[in-house]
Amino acid sequence: MDFYAAHRMTNDRHARIYSDGKAENLPALWPCYVISPNDTENEKQQKKEEFEKHNEEVVKNDG
After folding, report:
1. For residues 7 and 13, what is the distance between their CA atoms, to the nearest angstrom?
2. Does residue 26 register a pLDDT over 70?
């Protein structure tokens, strides 16, 4: 069984539980990314791209 849990006060959690009880953590969506006022435009863009790439991969690999 796969499950995805989201709560506004914690990080999302994505896991798979097998019939023998073994649990495997899976990648979860990142809710946001953090930029600093000191970040260059290039650094801001890199963080945005990393965020989007991660979330796209999680969604793509989910089924």
Report:
1. 9
2. yes
